Amino acid sequence: MLVMEGIAAGLVGLLAPPRCFFCGAPLRSLYPLCPDCEEDLPRWAGPLCLVCGRGVEEGIDLCPDCAVEGRPYAAARTLGPYEAGLRRLIQALKYEGERALARPLGHLLAALITTKARRHEEAFVLNSEKDPFVTWCLSGSLSVVTCVPADPARLRARGYHAAELLARVVAQELGLPFGNLLRKRRSTPPQVGRPRGERLTALVGAFVARRPGQGKAVLLVDDVITTGATVAEACRALGEAGYGEVYVLACAQAGGA
User: Fold this and answer.
1) Distance between CA atoms of residues 82 and 225, nearest Å
2) Does residue 173 contact residue 201 with C-beta atoms inside 8 Å?
3) Which of these, 182, 222, 226, 186, lies nearest to 204 by C-alpha position?
4) pLDDT in tens, 116-144
């Protein structure tokens, strides 16, 4: 089946050569972004909060929120702010059926992580001399990659779940298994534009684990972190089911933590 799909993709490429999603430049592969447009995506520059991954001032380890409020996850990281080309990619993947965009976004997310042990045993280390990203050094401790579960009604309407597509790419590139560890018990109103308090209220008890965790460390993937209410509730559900440390990975950070 995979061979036939590859042949079909090749024939399509001959008839209609793939082009960059942004600039329309012809591409030599089915990877939907050219190197220049991928390089132009907004990225975090400067220091980040060691917990939630938001930008902070030089010399500061924690953002004001993380300094006074605990998080239900070990740490969270995103590629950059939810703006410009990164926002466009996420919207096209999530709302416009552009499933192929999960590949470059998932590839960039996986590049933030290494599962190889390094000199230190910290959960992550700064590689500021090489690039503005924070690369996690997880020392091979991750057991499984999962995603924030789909809303049942929206999954039926769209036919796919963007966060799952991203998580599967990340899992493949890291050589880790993917598992649908959570399910959403009920549909909730769209969270876009709602205040943090309303988001938290709407999501309380919305997620439940499908099976016990037995202490496994989890990498939880989502498309965008806005107020953080969604990933926080998902992490709490994993913790209640007996999973170990949860690390959160998303394409972009919008608004507050």
Assistant:
1) 9
2) no
3) 186
4) 433 333 334 433 333 333 445 454 578 89
What torsion do the CA atoms of 102, 108, 110, 113 make, to the nearest 10 degrees? -160
Structure tokens at 164: 């799952």
Lookup result for tokens 């037995």: 214
DSSP the chain: -HHHHHHHHHHHHHHS--B-TTT--B-SSS-SS-HHHHHTS----S-B-TTT--B--TT--S-HHHHHS--SSSEEEEEEES-HHHHHHHHHHHHS--GGGHHHHHHHHHTTEE-S--SS-SS-EE-TTT-SSEEEE-TT-EEEEEEPPPPHHHHHHHSS-HHHHHHHHHHHHHT--B---EEESS-----TT--HHHHHHHHTT-EEESS--TT-EEEEEEEEESSSHHHHHHHHHHHHTT---EEEEEEEE-S--
pLDDT tens digit string along 33-75?
Answer: 999 999 999 998 888 888 888 888 888 888 888 888 888 998 8
Which pLDDT score, from 0 to 100, does residue 29 have? 86
Can you read off the two tokens belonging to residue 83?
């703006």
Q: Which domains does the chain have, with CATH numbers?
A: 1-40 (no CATH), 47-253 (3.40.50)
Give the model confidence (pLDDT) of 193-220 as tens digits.
Answer: 555 556 656 677 788 999 998 899 999 9
The tokens of 257 are what? 């933590």
